[in-house]
């Protein structure tokens, strides 16, 4: 079993992440999320040593989500603001055979981080005036595609999923084959656990480009649930 998560300084290190007080973890054998106890909560697909698992703590909206090979698996935990003390990344392994994994705690570039970095840069404080300008333009011209695209991406990173759905849906009303909007709306539905809606957008995305790697991966993850 591989368990990937986070913990406080007081967590017991002789237990897998999530199975003891002050620790939380996503487990490989059953895909469940453990929240400070031996009781699991259904979460995502199983994973193995050949997979790349990411754990993202979003302190802007106080949620935690995981990714598997670059595919967002959705929100696993929603109460970060209630946790006291510093949080630390942690990994646990329980195996009867020799096993090895590679961990990246931020000392090198993350494998699937490029799109997040670009979007976060666009949401930086230095772009505050630009964001306000786009908001004003939306108030004046509701079908401003450039502004709608910018907002959808910015809201996605900030975890404002209701706004992402609203903006991407407006884009699709303008152009039903807008791959950008289908991608962001499909991924947002996936995060929110609305798998049927996500699958519909992914199928449309694959009709536009049957070789879309992200859509193929996301569809595969949905089919495994």
TrEMBL record:
The keyword Amino-acid biosynthesis does not apply. Pfam families: SPRY. TPR repeats lie at residues 179-212. SMART domains: SPRY, TPR. This is Concanavalin A-like lectin/glucanase domain-containing protein. It comes from the Eukaryota. Residues 1-110 form the B30.2/SPRY domain. Keywords: Lectin, TPR repeat. One of its GO terms (molecular function) is carbohydrate binding.
């Amino acid at each position: 079993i591989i368990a990937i998560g986070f913990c406080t300084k007081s967590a017991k290190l002789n237990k897998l992440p999530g199975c003891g007080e002050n620790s939380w973890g996503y487990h490989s054998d059953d895909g469940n999320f453990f929240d400070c106890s031996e009781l699991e909560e259904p979460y995502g697909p199983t994973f193995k040593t050949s997979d790349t698992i990411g754990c993202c703590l979003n302190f802007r909206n106080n949620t935690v989500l995981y990714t598997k090979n670059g595919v967002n698996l959705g929100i696993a935990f929603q109460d970060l603001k209630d946790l006291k003390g510093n949080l630390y990344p942690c990994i646990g392994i329980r195996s009867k055979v020799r096993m090895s994994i590679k961990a990246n705690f931020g000392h090198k570039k993350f494998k699937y981080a490029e799109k997040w970095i670009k979007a976060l840069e666009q949401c930086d404080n230095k772009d505050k005036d630009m964001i306000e300008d786009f908001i004003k333009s939306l108030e004046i011209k509701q079908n401003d595609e450039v502004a709608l695209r910018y907002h959808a991406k910015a809201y996605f990173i900030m975890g404002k999923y209701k706004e992402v759905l609203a903006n991407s849906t407006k884009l699709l009303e303008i152009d039903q084959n807008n791959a950008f909007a289908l991608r962001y709306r499909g991924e947002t539905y996936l995060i929110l656990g609305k798998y049927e809606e996500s699958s519909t957008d992914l199928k449309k995305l694959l009709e536009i480009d049957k070789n879309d790697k992200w859509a193929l991966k996301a569809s595969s993850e949905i089919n495994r649930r």
